[in-house]
Design brief:
The complex is a heterodimer of chains A (370) and B (181).
Chain A lengths: L1 H10 L7 H38 L15 H11 L10 H17 L18 H22 L3 H32 L4 H6 L16 H17 L11 H4 L9 H26 L15 H27 L7 H29 L5 H8 L2
Helix pairs in contact in A: 1-2, 2-3, 2-10, 2-11, 3-10, 4-5, 4-10, 5-6, 6-8, 6-12, 8-10, 8-12, 10-11
Chain B lengths: L2 H27 L24 E3 L9 H5 L5 E7 L5 E9 L8 H5 L5 E3 L14 E3 L5 H28 L4 H9 L1
Antiparallel strand pairs in B: 1-4, 2-3, 3-5
Classes of the chains: A mainly alpha (370), B alpha+beta (181).
């Protein structure tokens, strides 16, 4: 951001009187673009989800609004905006109003460190992964608040479950991401991606770095699914037992916020998995830095989006395959299986990095053949 | 819980998930399996004994009131007057389909089989009184007056005929007969 500001001021010297204004404007523009992306992705995500679900269940899915139903999300969005925003009389008015914004902010703030491309990142924080973990915890507060403020048994149960679940699964999520951090030696998402480049193509990815990081990817996906409250871990929403869980009492645009947050979360999870294990925006067999900047950015954006969307599809595919877990099963899975396994992986990767000086298996094989 | 069963649990979770995902992927890719009917353009078949909206063929209806009496929820109401030819003439025949539960009793009981179920099931209306199906479209009062007029005419005609018959040499005919013989 500072570099960009300096560049603009260099180009247009008249702006030098108020550099802070330029920075502020830039921040606003970037935030706006990312917000637009999050909203459009939420819409597109619902469309994708419905289409994939329909295919799996032998149906057709949305096909009326626009060509092959592509504009369905606009119709849904307009409907949600036009609906009456009902606030129950018994609800805690202020908390009830605040909860959706907290949840949405928590999901949306994670976009700050999503590395969209070679230099397309809102802010390359040096605590990137840690920041994501911290800021998405805001979601659990929002969910608990929504459940509490609705003054409704189902909402309350859903909120409690969500809080328990998110807190339990935060540990495996963090532990499963640490291998990537260890290998790159940095918490910044851009540094992690840069460490996966090189001329090995897809074998430079952390996924193939060593057996422990390979398993870490899958453990991360499972734990992240639970953290975003997606089926098979959607017990906070559990339609069949809790009506709709913590968002039972919400309607209209506030309900829309919950929805957008869910899909934003799904994208953030996929983006993080891509960045940490699947090589992020690294264009296979090319060094992005050697290309002209415009092409480097466009190509890397394409590569990143392709990988992230593929993961989104996998998440949706899982949702329409597996049934929902029971509360005790969910907790058992977290504390008895996920936590020990991720710790085991963490130790394994640490030892590997220590013993082999950070070299991965493909790299070793490559060095054997010269 | 031994280590063996612990590892076994994990293995089972992984393999069963993979199995399930393979099945859903096969369904997802195979587009031939689609079963959805695009409703307003495509329609499923209407089966022969489907109990849709009621329809009464008012020309064959004999106004026997059987359907009115058997209906458990009182949705049929009819009014009839005796016509000139001694047959009943329907003045109004209304079915309140908002109340009808399509049990089919009225259809079963109808002696001339004039009341039938159609295959129809699509009807949307904005007001409650639109739910009453009228099978006689003429105004009840008009029919009543017309029938009364016809009855009166017929009565007048009958009276005239009777008078004519009286004034004619009515006994003459029987009297003439023996003469012929
Ligand atoms: S179908 Fe049943 S409910 Fe409907 S009018 Fe006939 S007897 Fe009454
Ligand atoms: S039972 Fe049949 S014939 Fe008798 S009044 Fe009803 S519709 Fe007419």
């Amino acid at each position: 951001m500072e570099q960009l500001t300096a560049l603009i001021i260099q180009k247009v010297p008249a702006l030098a009187v108020a550099p802070w204004a330029v920075t502020l404007l830039l921040i606003g523009i970037v935030a706006f673009i990312i917000l637009q992306f999050a909203m459009v992705f939420a819409g597109f995500g619902t469309y994708l989800e419905r289409k994939i679900a329909a295919d799996i269940q032998g149906r057709i899915g949305p096909n009326r609004v626009g060509p092959i139903g592509l504009l369905q999300f606009l119709a849904d969005g307009i409907k949600l905006i036009l609906k009456e925003d009902i606030i129950p009389t018994a609800a805690d008015n202020h908390l009830f109003r605040m909860a959706p914004y907290l949840i949405f902010t928590g999901s949306f703030a994670a976009f700050v460190v999503v590395p969209f491309g070679f230099s397309l990142i809102a802010a390359d924080l040096n605590i990137g992964i840690y920041y994501v973990m911290a800021v998405t915890s805001l979601v659990s507060i929002g969910v608990l608040l929504a459940g509490w403020a609705s003054n409704n048994k189902w909402s309350m149960l859903g909120g409690m479950r969500a809080a328990a679940q998110i807190v339990s699964y935060e540990i495996p999520v963090g532990m499963a991401l640490i291998p990537a951090v260890l290998i790159a030696g940095s918490l910044s998402t851009q540094d992690i991606i840069r460490s996966q480049g090189g001329l090995l193509g897809i074998f430079g990815w952390n996924l193939f770095h060593n057996p422990f990081s390979f398993f870490s990817f899958f453990l991360y996906m499972v734990a992240a699914l639970a953290e975003t409250n997606r089926t098979p871990f959607d017990i906070p929403e559990a339609e069949s037992e809790l009506v709709s869980g913590y968002n039972t009492e919400y309607s209209g645009i506030r309900f829309g916020f919950f929805f957008m947050a869910e899909y934003a979360d799904v994208f953030v999870v996929s983006a993080l998995a891509t960045a940490c294990f699947l090589g992020g925006w690294q264009i296979p067999f090319f060094n992005a830095a050697s290309l002209p900047p415009v092409w480097a950015n466009l190509l890397s954006l394409g590569v990143f989006m392709a990988k992230a969307l593929a993961l989104v599809c996998v998440i949706i595919w899982i949702r329409w395959t597996l049934p929902r877990l029971r509360v005790d099963q969910l907790m058992r899975m977290s504390w008895k299986y996920m936590v020990p396994l991720t710790f085991f992986n963490f130790l394994g990767v640490s030892l590997w990095v220590l013993v082999f000086k950070g070299k991965g298996i493909p790299q070793m094989i490559a060095s054997i053949f010269g | 819980m031994s280590l063996k069963s612990y590892i076994n649990d994990i293995w089972e979770a992984v393999t069963t998930t993979a199995k399930g995902m393979r099945i859903t992927a096969r369904y997802g890719i195979d587009v031939k399996e689609e079963v959805t009917i695009q409703y307003p353009e495509q329609r499923g078949p209407v089966f022969e004994r489907f109990r849709g909206f009621l329809a009464n063929d008012v020309k064959t209806c004999i106004s026997c009131n059987m359907c009115v009496k058997i209906c458990p929820v009182d949705c049929i109401s009819l009014e009839a007057v005796r016509g000139a030819d001694k047959k009943m003439v329907l003045v109004s025949y209304d079915v309140n389909i908002g109340r009808c539960m399509y049990c089919g009793l009225c259809v079963e009981v109808c002696p001339p089989k004039s009341l039938t179920h159609t295959g129809g099931f699509e009807k949307s209306m904005v007001a409650r009184d639109e739910m009453v199906l009228h099978f006689i479209h003429e105004d009840a009062e008009v029919i009543r007056q017309r029938v009364a007029r016809q009855v009166a005419e017929a009565a007048a005609k009958a009276a005239e005929e009777a008078k004519l018959a009286e004034s004619q040499p009515k006994p003459a005919a029987p009297a003439a007969e023996p003469e012929k013989k």
